[in-house]
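Session log. Operator J.P. requested a structure for one protein chain; no other inputs attached. Running the standard single-chain path with token output.
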Amino acid sequence: MRIFSIVGARPQFVKLAVICRALAKHHGSEQWLHRIIHTGQHYDPALSGVFFEELAIPRPDYDLDVGSGSHAVQTGDMLKRLEPILAAEKPDWVLLYGDTNSTLAGALAAAKLSLSIAHVESGLRSHRRGMPEEINRIVADHLSDLLFCPTPLALENLRKEGLQERAVWTGDVMYDACITFRQAAESRGGALGDSWQAGEFALATVHRAENTDDPVRLGGILKALDCIARTVCPVVWPVHPRTKKHLSDMGWSDSAVTTIEPVSYFEMLLLEGRARFIVTDSGGVQKEAYFLKVPCITVRDETEWEETLENNCNVLTGCCEEKILRAAGGIGRAGPWTAVYGDGDAGAAILNTLAART
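Structure written below.
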């Protein structure tokens, strides 16, 4: 069977690693031919190359080297470069991951060529069409032939859209990755492990355009992080390159927050697992906080991971400084965390379903 995985962004590399491990562990290589197409959506070595090395992902068979650009320009460039590859190779399945522009371009290119498409992490809905990721995930779901759902709620979302016959609950590949790699992350430790001890700091990540591109929203988040760092506990913030540019444009420098360069997946797992609590606008980090039973404050107005909101495990605050600080003061009330993301074997479930449907 010929499977082509299309990836391009940091969270997708982690999901891809789970599929690669499942292929090696559960199926003979003679049964599967797996090819990787890297669109180049994330091209910074700290956001791309280090993930392939750390997670032992095979080098991409195709690197489209698309780079940054507006949504239209980036997606259009991906389409132009994907189409001839898929048309020539004619894989049995095109495997898509998550909700990035790489996901959207892969879905469109494969559908136009009448290729079979499977979407990993289907059924997520923030219920806000103004969010680019929401458009990407809806289009990918409706164009895909197989929909791999991480949670029962995702399955229910697809049922409401009339897609239940294509949908399969597999569990979450990110949960697979977390339980597989967490001990290795702790064992490596390194300088970050020496600097940041368990329970002594808060971890922050801010990268979504809705926050970084809006000075008012970003300003509210920055004030809250600074106040937390001064009055609650130290805050460590690995800063995304795009966010770093916005901070520079704002002239932001006088803060108690400790900013560091982007970290690898192992380093992120280490920091997440040791944090007293996490402040983020990342969907993936929300989930990883939940997997690791670390209270989370999400600086967005909605989340596609609604399961995490149960029992105060994750609190939505938007960009309001007062709400963020109130949530930081209430983290002791978080929990318990319930098992809603499967049994840690989503990768095998995905491959078994592909084999059964081919």
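Operator note: The chain has two domains: 2-172+342-357, 178-333.
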